[in-house]
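Work package 3, deliverable 3.1, input record:
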Amino acid sequence: MSGAVESAAAPKPSRAFGGARRDWAGSLMLPAATLSVAVVVLLAWQFLPPAFGVPKYVIPTVTDLVAEMGRMWADEDLAQHVVSTAVWSVVGFVLGGLFGAVFGYLLGLSPLWEKVLSPYLLGLQIAPKVAFAPLFIMWFGYNAMPKLLVTVLIVFFPILVNVLQSMRVADRDLVNLARAYSMSRAQVFWKVLFPSSMPSLMAGLRIGATLAVIGITVGEVVGSQVGLGYLIVYGQGAANTAMVFNAIILLTVIGIAMYWAVAAIEARVLHYIPRAVA
Amino acid sequence: MARTVPALEMQAVTRRFPARERGALPFTAIERLSFHVAPGEFVALVGPSGCGKSTVLNLVSGLDRPSEGQVFLSGEEVTGPSSHVGFMLQKDLLLPWRSIRRNVEFGLEARGLSAAERAARIERELRRCRLTDYAERYPHQLSGGQRQRAALARTLAIEPSLVLLDEPFSALDAQTKILLQRSFAQTISASGVTTLLITHDLNEAVAMADRILVMSERPGRIVEEIAVGLPDRDNPIARQSMPRAQELVRHLLHALHLDEAVDA
Ligand SMILES: Nc1ncnc2c1ncn2[C@@H]1O[C@H](COP(=O)(O)OP(=O)(O)OP(=O)(O)O)[C@@H](O)[C@H]1O
Ligand SMILES: [Mg+2]
């Protein structure tokens, strides 16, 4: 008897039968469409500017960019610059994310401190963090410290704000349930509040991953002898437009890689959240 | 016969909430409320919306303290959350990041039980609530009725001496509700646990309880007490069709002045 209820009420399989064929088609069509867009854009980039008489020092063609990329690899020690930017972006992201999350949880646990500090946090959040770069250079000199600090600051806030917000909106009834089970404050935090904040923390980290590259780039542009930001300044000085383009492209690639990494971690951590059926 | 110590006793309990506006009088949710529940008894608490039923639940579970009066569990005054009380709400309150098995384990984690004892209790409650096949699923993969059963399994796993149910069926569709009521009635009667069911549904109160307490409009007090006196406590569906049950429902409608209400 109850078996009948169960089968009636049992969750539907995530993919309906009718969807199978469409999914198969979709699985090929989508990447194909994306790829065609890339091909069209690259072709347009290659042929349109010359056709309209735009000089190469304004918009270099795709083949120019590829050639310049090879030259940078051979002559400018490109690998070293890419690695430097990537490594410092990751370090800044991890540190900023860690501080942001820890502060978010601490403030979330103590509403008093949150109230005391919130005007300052708001001020710092609004202050343009990249503007601190020259200041940090004056304080710490031309080393990795200024770019790291700028990045940590930039990454810090979105994560702090997201975590804090998630602590505010945590389900009071769940917290009460844990309390009714005689759980300590620490247990309530680790078993209820912390896991319920995961979606917000992950959303914050995703934003942070893209911001980290911006922070490092600003640091490198303002004062550094290494990194893709430095190559941009160097390319600008040498009126080498292709070099600037290439550095921007590589920075974007680093940002995308970091974003994907976070998204992959998120997919594993938040495996229990039902995905919307497309 | 000597009077047994009630499993739950409220003695002239008043709960006031601070006024929302400055200078206004404090807000009295319940006033001098007294009742008791005997061990093993199934009592339903009905009353109009906002009369303080959930407030009673919070006071009994130790999450809230009375402004005046006392609450006793098996003769001991309630001063905070107790490991002998389990509660369930309209929301299942399952942790979405845990499998059903781990959800059932949740309430056991604050107590010093051996791993073997925990595992045994989880198995037992999963079986009792007929969820063994769903143990490794996540809450979103279950139906509303299954989720409420999982919440009951979690509640019973701590082996409470008192279970508080705050409208546990009200978020379900009519059919699931009827079947789940029966499933709960069977489970509760098999475990012999003392139960206080808060509900809006008069049919439900008559079908499931041994005794019904009727609360007045806010500030809530007990205005009527009805001994149900029907057989088949473990089969609410059978009970509902008895003539006496329908009579009781009519009586309750009258007690709550719902038969003469003009407007919602
Ligand atoms: N924490 C609180 N602060 C202030 N007022 C409260 C608080 N909790 C409850 N109340 C008030 O006390 C009254 C009783 O609330 P309660 O939730 O106990 O009602 P209820 O009988 O459970 O209602 P319902 O049947 O709609 O669930 C309500 O008017 C509510 O607004
Ligand atoms: Mg209520």
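The domain at 62-269 of chain A is CATH 1.10.3720.10 (MetI-like fold).
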